[in-house]
Amino acid sequence: MAIKKYNPTTSSQRFKIGLGFEEITKSSPEKSLVSRLNKTSGRSKGKITQRGIGGGHKRNLRDIDFKRNKKDIEAIVSSIEYDPNRTANIALLYYKDGEKRYILAPSGLKVGDKVSSAEKTAVKPGNTMPLGKMPIGTVVHNIELIPGRGGQVVRSAGAGAIVAAREGNYVHVKLPSKEIRKIHATCLATIGQIGNIDWKNTSLGKAGKSRHMGRRPKVRGVAMDPASHPHGGGEGKSGTGMHPKTPTGKSAFGKTRNRNKPSGKFILSRRKK
């Protein structure tokens, strides 16, 4: 998808870079796959439950098929649509038995293409199969970490992981963060890189655009008082002389991942070395 620059008729338009939406083929979503998205941010009983989140435009939730558990039934891509809840575009599938489902749209997928989910299928964008059946070097997305749970990682625009090696019942997958992780060979993954690659090159151009997206302003911890943040207090720009902390006082310096997390044994190479 190409990016679009705007004439500098206003101060905000001068820096705005948007998307062209040439790939989008349908403007309204499939009604049977849409539900109301209730907002959970803001305050509960007067107390902030999520900082920096609130307001924003109303949205409807699209029911995305992350499991791809409709096996051995071919589907035709009916349309490529915009989803306000994610950076990637979505594709509407029409199955031969009449069912409709949304999937994440990989790069190169077009209206009229046929996709399927099976133990062994063609290695082309949109098809889903177990990691253990894929050739080494295949680019994949929407990867399961536990068989049957559905895709949990590599789901944002432009993301793609690489099937790097096989080791017994496990497959080594190099994630977009450069982390190399062992994943069971029976876990499903979808072939191809996710589309809307130019999303990372966009610029909102003005603060109001962030408010439309439901993001409220953030205040630096050192600008607060001591009661509101561990970094607060002091005279002028004094800082605190301590290591970074979250607003609740939890350490945010160095390796903050729980060392006793059971899934740590599946990480072969950390993203931060």
Number of helices: 2
Kindly provide the radius of gyration, computed on alpha-carbon positions and rounded to a whole number of angstroms: 22 Å
Give the CATH level 1 class of the domain at 24-39 and 58-195.
Answer: Mainly Beta
CATH architecture of the domain at 24-39 and 58-195: Roll
Count of extended strands = 19
Q: Give the SSE string.
A: EHEEEEEEEEEEEEEEEEEHE
Order of strands across the biggest sheet? 11-18-12-15-16-17-19
Oligomer: single chain
CATH topology of the domain at 24-39 and 58-195: SH3 type barrels
Helix proportion range: under 10%
Return residue spans where pLDDT drops below 50 for at least 5 consecutive residues.
Answer: none
Shape: globular
Can you walk me through this structure?
The chain is mainly beta and 273 residues long. The protein has a domain at 24-39 and 58-195: SH3 type barrels (Roll). It is built from 2 helices and 19 strands. The chain has helices at 11-15, 207-212, and strands at residues 3-5, 17-19, 34-36, 42-44, 47-50, 60-62, 75-81, 90-95, 100-104, 114-115, 128-130, 139-141, 143-144, 151-153, 161-167, 170-174, 180-184, 188-191, 267-269. A 7-stranded antiparallel beta sheet has the order 11-18-12-15-16-17-19, with no helix packed on it. The longest helix is centred in the last third of the chain and has 6 residues, at 207-212. The relative contact order is 0.15. The model has no long low-confidence stretch (mean pLDDT 93).
